[in-house]
Structure to design on (133 residues):
């Protein structure tokens, strides 16, 4: 089974968290699901650097990685994913969608109402618990 290593950015600005929606996909189980933006880690690249690069490529947004958050290992029916997630900040909520069909800036209390990709759910759960402290 194919293994994919990716980085995801939990981007926070003014206490709002950026959530992006995937478009249609050949794998129905991730089609139109919400996720934290990011992408594949390239050979020799640090996962944190991949997050910065992918966010700029996909959203034309400049972010700063504040800290590691959670690494998720998830098995989908057709591939395995290792997803590194990072708490990130940005100076603006302005972005340009190029690979996603929509986005929302949400309060932590609103996160649980989105239809998340399965690999992102452990991150959402931990984030809600951590932000409730």
């Amino acid at each position: 089974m194919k293994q994919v290593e990716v980085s995801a950015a939990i981007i926070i600005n003014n206490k709002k968290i950026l959530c992006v929606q995937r478009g249609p996909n050949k794998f129905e189980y991730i089609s139109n699901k919400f996720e934290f933006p990011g992408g594949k880690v390239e050979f020799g690249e640090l996962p944190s650097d991949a997050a910065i690069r992918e966010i700029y490529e996909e959203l034309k947004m400049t972010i700063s990685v504040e800290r590691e958050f959670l690494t998720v290992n998830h098995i989908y029916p057709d591939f395995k994913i290792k997803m590194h997630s990072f708490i990130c900040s940005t100076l603006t909520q302005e972005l340009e969608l190029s690979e996603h069909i929509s986005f929302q800036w949400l309060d932590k209390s609103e996160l649980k109402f989105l239809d998340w990709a399965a690999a992102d759910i452990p991150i959402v759960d931990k984030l809600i618990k951590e932000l409730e402290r």
The first strand starts at residue 2 and ends at 13. The radius of gyration is 14 Å. Strands lie at 2-13, 16-22, 34-35, 38-40, 64-75, 79-89, 100-106.
